[in-house]
Specification:
heterodimer; A: about 325 residues; mainly alpha; B: about 100 residues; 3 strands
């Protein structure tokens, strides 16, 4: 899940808000020019913005391996995947902009730390097997959250999610493909695959955020259909789907308490270390500073290009007006 | 456009798919001018052969109907079911029509 702990606004009990809720309950889509409660608008900006930032920052851990991919084919595939992440960020920024926030405002809020991105991207990618683990687990966890969001109440967000989901399953499959190669490779490669799973398992579980079954914020977002499932539901679904895949790979999920629970029809599993999660969210993860520094550098060093292109466009337009 | 603004304008992107359908709105993007908007649209919206033709329109130049006009604009069509061929019962003996 790329949006974590999004603070939810509150509704009011005006007649307009009640009519709005009735539209959502009837399954209607809300479009940019429609009336909406301020809380709905603000929550969506935070949530879609955080999601967009996650796609953009999420390019960094994978970009780390583009120059060192083991074959030309793997390199081309990884490039295509990272390019997709940029595209997903752009679809989402556009959806957020329909709510009255500008692209530059969103970017600035990411760069100065006012807006967050998913905690998962603050972990380093140390070996090639991490590219497998990221695709398989991180994209797998993201898909868990994104598939139901295709039915979200806000039209532009829903349409962005539909596009993203279409492209995302390639990401997870390419990750699993890397894991299969490594897990069936030499002893050293198998060890590398196991090590990647060991490091990414709990951070992937954290992606869904802490339990929110008693949260009022979460209840409001669910009533508005901008959150479709509780964090615990999605986490359970992810574990249930992923454990058999790990077994197929012959890798061990790093949880001694992992057990199939016949009565609930799902696995019992250990919670991640939530104090680590809160430290990462606060900015103290292994790579927080590096990630933000990389985004700031790209923004600062790209400034002359943005300015020059705008100046060129204006000059061309002025010349055209004179010619007419 | 306000010249003190530093942000590239917003463009709406329309793409025609492979099978001779109309251009369809797919999303939007920022670009300094129309030419760059087309180039960016190619990268953002046609990475998987989604189309064979791109239109871009500056978002500010689009006029849209107001949501509050929904009733007056579209409700009158509701009672005109005879505009659909299924309204008319043609006996089976007549054959395909």
């Amino acid at each position: 899940m790329y949006a974590q702990m999004v603070e939810s606004g509150t509704s009011d009990d005006s007649a307009e808000a009640e009519a709005f809720q009735r539209r959502i309950d009837a399954g209607e889509k809300i479009e940019p020019k429609d009336w909406m409660p301020e809380g709905y608008r603000k929550t969506l900006i935070r949530q879609i913005g955080q999601h967009a930032h996650s796609e953009i920052v999420g390019q960094l851990p994978e970009g780390n391996w583009i120059t060192r991919a083991p074959t030309l084919e793997r390199k081309a595939i990884l490039l295509a995947k990272v390019q997709d992440e940029a595209g997903h960020g752009l679809y989402l920024y556009c959806a957020a902009e329909t709510l009255g926030v500008s692209r530059d405002e969103l970017t600035e809020m990411l760069l100065d730390g006012r807006m967050k991105y998913s905690s998962i991207f603050n972990y380093p990618t140390l070996t090639w097997a991490d590219m497998g683990a990221v695709g398989w687990l991180v994209d797998g966890a993201a898909i868990m959250n994104q598939v139901p969001l295709q039915r979200t109440s806000y039209g532009p967000y829903s349409r962005a999610m539909i596009r993203i989901c279409k492209e995302e399953s390639f990401h997870q499959r390419q990750g699993f493909d890397i894991m299969m190669k490594m897990a069936n490779g030499t002893e050293a490669q198998k060890k590398m695959a196991q090590d990647a799973l060991d490091r990414f398992w709990y951070p992937s579980l954290m992606m869904f955020g802490p339990s929110d079954k008693d949260s009022v914020h979460s209840a409001q977002s669910m009533a508005w259909k901008i959150k479709m499932n509780t964090n615990d539901e999605l986490r359970q679904k992810f574990v249930d789907q992923t454990v058999p895949q790990a077994e197929y790979l012959g890798l061990a999920v790093p949880d001694p308490d992992l057990r199939w629970n016949e009565t609930k029809g799902g696995y019992d599993f250990s919670e991640p270390d939530w104090s680590e999660f809160f430290e990462v969210i606060k900015g103290n993860g292994p790579c927080n500073r590096e990630r933000l520094a990389a985004r700031n550098k790209a923004w600062d060093e790209g400034k002359w290009v943005r300015d020059a292109m705008l100046a060129h466009a204006r000059k061309k337009r002025a010349a055209k007006m004179v010619a007419e | 456009m306000n010249d003190t603004r530093k942000e590239w304008p917003l463009w709406e992107v329309f793409i025609r798919g492979q099978h001779g359908m109309s251009h369809r709105h797919v999303g939007s993007l920022h670009a300094p001018d129309a030419e760059m908007a087309i180039r960016n649209a190619r990268d953002v919206y046609t990475r998987r052969k989604e189309g064979i033709s791109i239109w871009v329109v500056e978002a500010g130049k689009i006029t849209a109907s107001a949501p509050s006009q929904k009733g007056p604009l579209y409700d009158p069509a509701e009672s005109k079911v005879y505009r659909h061929p299924t309204f008319f019962d043609i006996p089976d003996d007549v054959g395909a029509m």
